[in-house]
Amino acid sequence: MRTLFIYPLFPKTFWSYEKILELVNRKVLLPPLGLVTVAALLPQEWDMKLVDRNVREIIEEEWNWAELVVISGMIVQKDDMQIQIAEAKRRGLPVAVGGPYASSTPDAPEIEQADFKVLDEGEITLPMFIEAIQRGDNSGRFSSEGEKPDVTATPIPRFDLLQLDAYDSMSVQFSRGCPFNCEFCDIIVLYGRKPRTKNPEQLIAELQSLYNLGWRRSIFLVDDNFIGNKRNAKLLLPQIKSWQEERGYPFSFATEASVDLADDEEMMRMMHEARFESVFLGIETPDEASLATSRKLQNTRNPLDAAVDRITANGIRVMAGFIIGFDGEKDGAGRRIVDFVTRTGIPAAMMGMLQALPNTALWHRLEKEGRLIQDKSAAKGVNQTNLLNFKPTRPIRDIANEYVDAFCALYEPNAYMDRVYSYYLKMGAPRWKGTSKLPTWTDIKALSIVVWRQGIKRDTRSRFWRYMLSMARRNPAMLEQFLVVLAHNEHFLEYRAIVQREIREQLESLPPEEPSTSRELLTA
Ligand code: SF4
């Protein structure tokens, strides 16, 4: 079966980092790990080609070659998903869809035309799909009915189908699911609260496969919460460390984890020694009442400032997500986030307005309270330019204006530079020793552009040189990373203008707010 895998387009988001990717000659940050995993689960005698539409267009010969089209994507990719399904159908090709969007909203209009809906986790539903194809069926819908597969049998993803040089980072996955219970989270709906992990040997085999294909850059462990199963994470980390040591530390790692990582010195040390350079934390807000409302109680157990400092001191850079628009939130939430980020120095702080994602506990509660202003098919997912998709407990304009102000304050060039500088002074120096590499021509070109823009052209120039010299003297091991993270503001600066423009446009088109909304909801 000649199978064409299509990964739909992403809109520009905070994490798309276009300007940075342009600097380093890459097209996209991360590859479609789900699709290459599906490819590994299908019969290996099938011929396969993969087109990531974020990398390039599909060419005529590929459409003509295909006998089956497989599409997967997230909620933010749904528009292009619909376009690609329609194009495949126009050409008379059978289409199978799967992935997070299809699984959470199988009846969504965007995927209506697909012949096969392969929902939930492929380890369970792909064998049903294969059987259907082999029987000659023309359509089908396959669900795991709540069953969660054991991932210890999941094969090595077909990384060979990817155009590796287009990506800044590769992805692998060790675990699925998270033990926590945050009200707005769709991860626990899709993957459950009992984290399931692969065996350490399985993950090492995936790393080796990437290494054999010539990969030598960063790897993102896309786990929902890498430390969801601490015991198994601690069994894996020493194996990664040895594998890295034997090869001169060819990979750097980033992942996502819950804030309680800061309570586990051993875990942080092990992660650092395996060369985990950054971790994304869902901090959400420094407001304890909002954390309690959203059932993110794990973030209220210990002071968040100290948690960030401890992870930083262990040589792991913290990236963090923040949300505004929780029920009962008091005025000034945006400012309190800016103050927190400034205090801790977190360089990349992602902000968004709260979104109720289909089928989450938040979605069901708001539906019961009659507060959703979108049905499932209109939900857009988490994007930094989306207004809340429900009636909040304070005026939506106040929330949106605070959000825009906070975003602009966080990425004001001087403020960003101050923050990154203070952060890297606190950052622990690497304890691992890798093989040193000469910079490539692309690295040198990117560095020259950043120095030209931030150190000569803009009014950040005196700060730039002062901080560079000081960093070289006070924490020289971190100078290179400091420069790389300074370069990230090339993207944030542009993204700041997009956020400002798009939110203001949406606010202008909103009907006047009923003055009673916030009061009524608070007393409901
Ligand atoms: S900690 Fe993160 S992944 Fe886990 S339930 Fe909360 S939001 Fe979801």
Plain-language structure description:
There is one protein chain. With 524 residues, the chain is α/β, with parallel strands linked by helices. Among the domains are: 2-142, Rossmann fold, CATH 3.40.50.280; 168-354, Aldolase class I (TIM Barrel, Alpha-Beta Barrel), CATH 3.20.20. Helix content is 44%, strand content 13%. The protein has helices at residues 18-23, 33-41, 60-65, 78-90, 100-104, 122-135, 187-191, 200-212, 230-246, 265-273, 288-293, 304-313, 333-344, 361-368, 396-410, 413-426, 441-457, 461-474, 479-487, 489-508, 517-523, and strands spanning 2-7, 47-52, 68-72, 95-98, 116-118, 140-142, 169-172, 175-176, 196-197, 218-221, 252-257, 276-284, 317-324, 349-353. The strands form three sheets. It has a six-stranded parallel sheet, sandwiched between helices. Strands 7-10-11-12-13-14 form a six-stranded parallel sheet. Helix 13 links the parallel strand 13 (317-324) and strand 14 (349-353). The protein is globular, with a radius of gyration of 23 Å. The structure holds iron/sulfur cluster (SF4). Residues 178, 180, 182, 185, 187-188, 224-225, 258, 282 line the site of iron/sulfur cluster.
